[in-house]
Amino acid sequence: MANTFAFAESRGGALRRVAFETVSAARALADACGGGEVHAFLAGAPGVSSLASELGKYGADVVIVVEHPGLANANAESLAATAAERIRAGGYRAAVFSASAQGRDLAPRVAAKLGVGMAADVIAFELSGDALVVKHPAYAGKVIATLKLTGSPAIMTLHPGARAAVEAPTEARVESAQPAADPGASKVLVKEMIAGGGAKLDIGDAPVIVSGGRGLKSADNFRLVEDLAAAFGNAAVGATRAVTDDGWRPHSDQIGQTGRQVSPDLYVACGISGAIQHIAGMRNSRTIVAINKDKEAPIFKVADYGIVGDVVEILPVLTAAVKEAREKG
Amino acid sequence: MKIAVCIKRVPDMETRFKIAASGSSVDETGLKYDMSDFDGYAVETALQLNEKQGPGETVVISLGPDVVQEQLRKALSMGADRAVQLKSDRVPADGLAIATALAAELKSGGYDLILFGRQAVDSANATVGPMTAELLDLPCATAVSSLEIANGRATARRELEGAAEVVEFSLPAIVSVDEGMPRARYPSLKGIMAAKKKPLEVRPAQLGEERITIEKMELPPERAAGRIVGEGPAAVPELVRLLHTEAKVL
Ligand SMILES: Cc1cc2nc3c(=O)[nH]c(=O)nc-3n(C[C@H](O)[C@H](O)[C@H](O)COP(=O)(O)OP(=O)(O)OC[C@H]3O[C@@H](n4cnc5c(N)ncnc54)[C@H](O)[C@@H]3O)c2cc1C
Ligand SMILES: Nc1ncnc2c1ncn2[C@@H]1O[C@H](COP(=O)(O)O)[C@@H](O)[C@H]1O
After folding, report:
1. How far is Cα B82 from Cα B4, in angstroms, rounded to an integer?
2. Are B127 and A156 in contact (CB under 8 A)?
3. Which of B12, B166, B236, B242 to mutate to test the interface with A (most CBs of A within 10 A)?
4. Most buried among A62, A290, B19, B178, by the most CB within 10 A?
5. How far is B152 from A94, CA to CA, in rounded Å?
6. Four-residue CA torsion sign, A68, A59, A135, B14
7. ∠ CA(B210), CA(B213), CA(B219), 5° rounding?
């Protein structure tokens, strides 16, 4: 029986969805270790402890809460030092982070501090004897590698959305802890947080993504993409590199090999040719729809449903039809 | 500034990969190679910083067998001043083993800035940069989309999901570069000629312990062929019907 550690990510005083995914993955690992405990690590500004009970819902037995005014913004040095110290002291079999922007920043530092193996961007995992065996997309998503990590604790970052959080309610015990390193003394400090577009869903969290390419012809026409996203209600807007290069959309919207990798339930590609670097970021979407005026466009090779035609003409009609379908329920 | 850039040799991703007979690597026959995308941005970043800020030195480092000299020469032809190959017969799958060797090389180099790619496009780990920073106990900003340096202080922007943060730190420091940073320039003919005479040192890599092995590589399942629903706005009702009844996403 061995315990597992989960980093529960929060931002601005709220848990992120990936926090539940890491706790839930740690639960699965603890169960595979003969029913060990899940210890979730939650850090933030004073008051963050109020989020602890939410983690119990997904199987956290203990929530280690670190509250400090200097942790209001992410503070990688202090967080990595504190998490590493807890992991070292806790004798865990594994430590799970998300392969989110924050998790990808923290987990390698923790692995280096502890001198242990780390697998990144894991889409599936299992304990096999004394090894942790994981699957990891490599080569721009064109190859799936199975990696074997020996030694304990094994660290992994979990691909966001690859494994849905499963409820496993427990009454989580809260344990307070102090930062192992003074957040104010960090060598790198956050000077400013720039919020995204208000209440908009992030492309990593959205069940539906409507994405636009150069076929939209102008930044103005992205309004049509936003309208369709709004009609779905639960959608985010993505873009190709051609579009972010032209400054029609911010770089953070870019999907693909050098952008974000997403796997929504529905991906609508509007005026996108389907270059392999773009496909690398969206090929794992459950259903793909493509609208392109060129019936030979490579995007149709990965699309489940395609419409050939002018995206500027088609989008308003599709938006109206989606609205109507959603109103009918 | 004295800037080091760590670059990795990777296959061109526009390939249709095949799995080698061993089942645990890609088949290398016929593959073309280049430096990893973001590593190219990192070299470009270093060159532009030194071009703008006056006298400096850009050193490129790659760990691997002798073939990595091709990518080191390319970086030299872009304008880097000298190159170091950390020689090993293969590149380990364990990022910490690589970081250990890079840290040993970088430790006494007196660098103001050490640049990495956000992630190598083949391994897609995004671990070697921050691990090296940890081993050297240097300030580190990962996945930065913009970087400004003045008077020994750096300001960098990092894209988060649906937000961004601006961080500040002093040099020496480690930065891993993401989309948003300048794309690699094409080497000029003059650059290619000059690169032949630039120094390229070879030293054995002092790899760390390896805790990760590749058990298997496989191609992901192909997507089933889709269909064209129709042409123009007239096809919309049928598409919506399929999304509702067949794909069940509406
Ligand atoms: C190293 C590297 C990394 C890269 N990383 C990424 C990445 O992460 N993400 C990414 O997206 N790209 C990436 N790219 C760029 C990629 O190769 C393509 O250039 C890019 O994806 C093309 O964007 P696009 O489809 O918007 O534009 P285009 O390729 O120009 O395609 C526009 C499409 O719109 C269609 N069209 C035109 N007019 C209309 C109309 N009126 N109605 C309907 N359709 C219309 C055209 O038929 C065409 O298919 C990368 C490239 C390199 C070299
Ligand atoms: N073999 C290598 N030689 C030099 N630099 C490397 C090597 N492997 C990785 N790197 C650097 O580390 C970055 C991240 O790689 P990775 O952690 O494998 O995704 C790369 O973009 C390079 O800058």
Report:
1. 10
2. no
3. B236
4. A290
5. 39
6. negative
7. 145
Q: Which among B139, B219, B247 is the nearest to A287, CB-wise?
A: B247
CA angle A282, A287, A293 (to 5 degrees): 75
CB B144 within 8 A of CB B158: yes
Do residue A283 and residue B133 have CB atoms under 8 angstroms apart?
no
Q: Is the dihedral of CA A189, A97, A61, A59 positive or negative?
A: positive
Separation of alpha carbons A17 and A116, rounded Å: 27
CB A160 within 8 A of CB A22: no
Sign of CA dihedral A230, A232, A236, A237: negative
C-alpha A313/C-alpha A320 separation (Å) is 12
End-to-end Cα, chain A, rounded Å = 48
A195, two tokens: 């919020």
Residue with tokens 């190598």: B120
What value of ipTM does the predicted structure carry? 0.95
Which of B128, B7, B111, B101 lies closest to B62 in space, CA to CA?
A: B7
Going by their DSSP bridges, the two strands A235-239 and A208-212 should be labelled as parallel
CA atoms within 13 A on the CB side of A169: 1
Tokens of B142: 């990962």
A204, closest residue in chain B (CA to CA): B161
Residue A218 near chain B (CB below 8 Å): no
Torsion of CA A121, A126, A132, A134, to 10 degrees: -30
Mean pLDDT in runs of 10 for chain A (329 residues)?
94 93 97 94 97 96 97 95 97 96 97 98 94 96 96 95 93 96 95 75 90 98 97 95 94 92 95 96 95 97 97 98 90
